[in-house]
What does this fold into?
Amino acid sequence: MQRVHLICFLMLGLAMPSAHAQLAHQLFEIVITKHGESCTGIAKAQAIGTSTEGDSLVAVVCSNGGNHVVRLHKNNAVSYLSSCATLASETGLRCFAPR
It folds into this structure.
């Protein structure tokens, strides 16, 4: 049940400008930076789908440039998946499709 709460908390953080959103953004920034990418602040984040393993995928735009995808695992772990460019070239999926 705790896993569901964390995922709901992170997804809620994407939808609402609040302390929850700030915490989710900080977590995404840490994951991206630990992967070796530069990310100083999050300009935009949005859920983009689910992996074949059932993990949630979130597209993230860093304030200093760079578009990335992070994975919210079913076991509550958060990890770096790829850049948005790599996701698009390998799967054809775009992080932020034009409307």
Summary: The first strand starts at residue 42 and ends at 50.
